[in-house]
Amino acid sequence: MCYNLSIKFEGDIMKKRILSGMRPTGRLHLGHYFGTLQNWVKLQDSYDCYFEIADVQALTDNYDNPEKVKNNVREVTIDYLSAGIDPKKSTIFIQSMIPEIAELTVFYSNLVTVSRLYRNPTVKTEAKQKKELFGNDGESITYGFLGYPVSQAADITAFKGEVIPVGEDQLPLIEQCREIVRKFNHIYGETLIEPNALLSENKRIKGLDGNKMSKSLNNAIYLSDSKEEITKKIMGATTDPKKLRKDDPADPEVCMVYSYHKLVNPNVEKVCSECKEGCRGCVACKKELIAAMEEYLKPIQEKHKYYEEHPEVVDKILQEGTAKAREEAKKVTNEVKENMLINYFN
Ligand code: TRP
User: Fold this and answer.
1) Among residues 69, 82, 146, 299, which one has the fewest Cβ atoms lying within 10 Å of its Cβ?
2) Domain total in the chain
3) Distance of alpha carbon 155 from alpha carbon 152, whole angstroms
């Protein structure tokens, strides 16, 4: 039997299914928002979207800190919702509450060699970054961490996700999923859908210090930062180091403050020309950015406050989304088991 779950009929329009997710390891920042979330929000109308809170994946490198993962499940859900993910349009679910994903992970693990996992560029980069956890040589890397691309393939295929909106860093994981799907279909018969990555148009967002914005580098502005926090962070952001005096002309392209003006300030052209001409001091420029940022984040922060004050609403969204997602994953898993000849009494 072959269900085609990836298509949702809405009137006469067929909607393809989207599956994506994030690890609940911290509050979401502007890098997540402009790099990923904004794109998800736009896609909600044209696709049947499933957005995962990837707590099992978060535990692969946070297995010794379960409180952190637990606390961030709701935190990240609130960030999804505040950024504009609409539970009436999209399904938000918790990975660990779909045991079928774990089942599929076990089945797929036979289809992937250990050396292929070691060669996965995303795994390699992450293992290097986490030297403290896995040792310098990577030999002490855990089975769970090495295998997380297999579990991510289970996340995607459990829902017959066809379109996977992700950042560039995730491409090797999507490729690995495609290989698993091809191998599965070849051995057990046409069952799973080969997904395609959809890269978001937005470029990487730089942090306050000019490196990639990231929690671990402590250079991020969070969607839920207070006015005081945002003010402090922007006042300390890196500007053109060659600009020494208030009326020196400068290069906005090397200035982090300008990079954020581009994202949130409608008057960005004026900011650029005044900076180049040397008639804009950095302090005034930062103050203007603080006001623009505050204005931009206002609707997001209002929703954030609402959901924070109504945890029962957040829980209901998660419970309903997870129940719906589980039904979908069950259908695919039954089909997978049937084709693997392990559905004994059906
Ligand atoms: N690996 C992704 C990240 O670190 C999160 C993720 C988990 C994901 N499962 C997924 C992304 C499935 C896309 C599809 O951000």
Assistant:
1) 299
2) 2
3) 5
Ligand 1 pocket mutation pick from 173, 204, 212 by most atoms within 8 angstroms of CB = 173
Give the DSSP H/E element, type plus range, for residue 311: helix 311-339
In a domain, 346, yes or no: no
Question: 286 is in which domain, residue-wise?
Answer: 227-304
Output the pTM of the full model.
0.93
Q: Are residues 65 and 180 in the same domain?
A: yes
CA distances from 95 to 98, 185, 319, 326 (A): 6, 24, 12, 10
Which residues line ligand 1 at a C-beta cut-off of 6 Å?
19-23, 52, 54, 57, 152, 155-156, 164, 166, 170
At 195-234, the pLDDT tens digits run 999 987 756 799 999 999 998 899 999 999 999 999 999 9
* 186 & 240 share domain: no
Residue nearest to atom 13 of ligand 1 (CA): 20
What is the Cα Rg of the chain in Å?
22
Classify burial at 266, counting beta carbons within 10 Å of its beta carbon; exposed 0-12, middle 13-18, buried 19 or more: exposed
Cα separation, 343 vs 334, in Å, equals: 7
The 10s digit of each residue's pLDDT in 31-76 is 999 989 999 999 999 999 999 999 999 999 999 999 999 999 999 9
d(CA 141, CA 124): 10
